[in-house]
Amino acid sequence: MKTLQVDLGQRSYPIYIGSRLLEQADLLTRHIRSKQVLIVTNETVAPLYLQQVLDNLSDFVVETVILPDGEQYKTLDYLNRIFDTLLTHKFSRNASLIALGGGVIGDMGGFAAACYQRGIPFIQIPTTLLAQVDSSVGGKTGVNHPLGKNMIGAFYQPQCVIADMSVLSTLDDRQLSAGIAEVIKYGLIREPDFFAWLEDNLESLLDRDVEALAHAVERSCRNKAEVVAADEKEADVRATLNLGHTFGHAIETGMGYGSYLHGEAVAIGTCQAADLSRRKGWLTDADVERIIRLFKRARLPVEPPAALDANRFIELMAVDKKNVDGNIRLILLKSIGEATLPVGVEKALLVATLNGYGRKG
Ligand SMILES: NC(=O)c1ccc[n+]([C@@H]2O[C@H](COP(=O)([O-])OP(=O)(O)OC[C@H]3O[C@@H](n4cnc5c(N)ncnc54)[C@H](O)[C@@H]3O)[C@@H](O)[C@H]2O)c1
Ligand SMILES: O=C(O)C(=O)C[C@@H](O)[C@H](O)[C@H](O)COP(=O)(O)O
Ligand SMILES: [Zn+2]
To answer: 9, 78, 81, 141: which sits with the fewest CB atoms below 10 Å from its CB?
Structure first.
C-alpha cells in the first residue's frame, strides 16, 4: 500500500492506495471518532461492496442510504434523502459519513457532510477510476442544478481517502475510459513526462494491468494533492484542474445530465481547449493531433455533439465558476505539460473552435 498526504495544515489527510484495502478494517476505523456512522452509496455499488464495508464496522451503529444510480440524481432533492436519514436516526455532530461509490456519491456525500449540523467528518471510499484519480481528493463537493453543473456546493475536505484498486475489477470499460480522461489531464496541465508515459502505457491501462493502474492512480493523486495543497479554494493554480471542463460541463448540462459521462465530456472539452490553444498560437497542429490521438486511443469521444451549436455552447458556458463579471474564462494550454490560469479569449476565436473543431465531417 502507498500512502500520500494532502498537506492542508489542520485539514491534512492521507490517501491510501493499494489492493484489497476494503479488507483492512483498521484503515477505516482509525478515522472514525464516534459510534454513529452513515454510509452513502448507490444501487449499483451497494450489492458489490457495501457488505465488505459493513463487516469492518461491527462495533458501530451504522445506517445506510442507497441512492439511485446516475448523474441525473446528483440534485438537492436526492441530497435531502441523506439529511432525512441523519435526522431520523438522530445523528450527532461527531457522527461520520462514508461515501462509498464513484464521483457522484463522493460529491453528494461530501456535500451532505459539509452541511449537516454545519459539518461532520466524512471519509471517501472511491470505487471508480475517475473517483480514485480525481473526485475523492481535494474537497470539492456539491450537486448539479438544471442550469449548471456543480453549481451548488462547498469546499470540504475528507478525513481520508481509501482507494482500493481491487474494486476497479467490476467497473465497465466505458467507465474505465472516462476515468482515463482525467488522468490524461494531469499530464497535459503539469507533467509532460506523465503524458508520454500514458502514450507508452495506454494499452496496459485499458487491459487493466494492476501495476499500470496503480501507477496511474498514484501519479494522478500526487499531482492533485500538490495542486490542492498549493491552492485549496481555487484562487489560482487549482483552476488548471478545470482544463476542458468549461466545454465539458456545457456538454453535460446541455445534453442532459448522464447522457455523456463526465470523463467523456471532459475528453471532448479538452480537445476543444487544445484547438483553441492552437488558434492562440500556443500549441502546434502536431501537439493538437497528439492530444486527440491519445483520447481516441483511450476509446473516448473527441467531437462535440452536433445538437449544440456555437450559440448554445456560449450560452451554457456563461454559467461557469471561473467566469468573472459574466465573461467566459478558460484554461488553455501553453504546451503539452503547461496550462494557463483562466484566460479570456477573443469571441471570434472561441466561435471558430466551436464551429470548426470536430465539425469538419
Ligand atoms: N469533486 C471533484 O473534484 C470531482 C472531480 C471529477 C469529477 N467529479 C464529479 O464526479 C462525477 C463523475 O464520477 P464517476 O465517473 O465516478 O461517475 P459515477 O459516480 O456516476 O460512477 C460511474 C458508474 O460506475 C458505477 N460504479 C461505481 N463504482 C463501481 C464499481 N467498483 N464497479 C462497478 N460499477 C461501479 C456507478 O454506479 C455508476 O454507474 C461527476 O458528477 C463529476 O462532476 C467531481
Ligand atoms: O478539483 C478540482 O479543482 C477540479 O476542477 C477537478 C475536476 O475534474 C472536477 O470535475 C470538478 O468537480 C470541477 O469543478 P467545478 O468547480 O468546475 O465544478
Ligand atoms: Zn472533472
So the answer is: 9
Residues 6+ apart with CB under 8 A from 102: 45, 126, 127, 128, 130, 131, 135, 175
Interval between CA 88 and ligand 3 midpoint (Å): 33
pTM of the predicted model as reported, rounded to 2 decimal places: 0.98
Q: What is the pLDDT of residues 200-233, one digit of tens each?
A: 999 999 999 999 999 999 999 999 999 999 999 9
> Would you call 89 a catalytic residue per the annotation?
no
Q: What is the H or E stretch that residue 292 is in?
A: helix 285-297
Instruction: Give Cα 40 distance to the centre of its chain.
Output: 17
Q: Annotation-wise, does 104 bind a ligand?
A: yes
Inform me whether the pLDDT recorded for 361 exceeds 70. Answer: no
User: DSSP E strands: which ranges in the chain?
Assistant: 2-6, 13-18, 36-42, 61-67, 96-101, 122-126, 140-145, 148-155, 161-164, 333-335, 338-339
Question: What is the longest distance spanned by two Cα atoms in the chain?
Answer: 62
Quick check: is 262 catalytic?
yes
Q: What is the pLDDT of residue 360?
A: 45
What are the structural domains, with CATH classification, of the chain? 2-170 (3.40.50.1970), 174-356 (1.20.1090.10)
Question: Could you tell me the CA-to-CA distances from 229 to 7, 8, 221 in Å, in that order?
Answer: 5, 6, 12
